[in-house]
Amino acid sequence: xxxxxxxxxxxxxxxxxxxxxxxxxxxxxxxxxxxxxxxxxxxxxxxxxx
Length: 50
Known about the structure:
Elements: H1 2-22, H2 29-49
């Protein structure tokens, strides 16, 4: 399950980067998804290190 969450987080970060750098307007929801993705990545790193 953790691996799937990490994969989803990476995909969300890629989508955010494409929309941010490409200048597409995606609204505020993409930023909320980015925060969730970053939290998922941090949790993965913390749990993997412990």
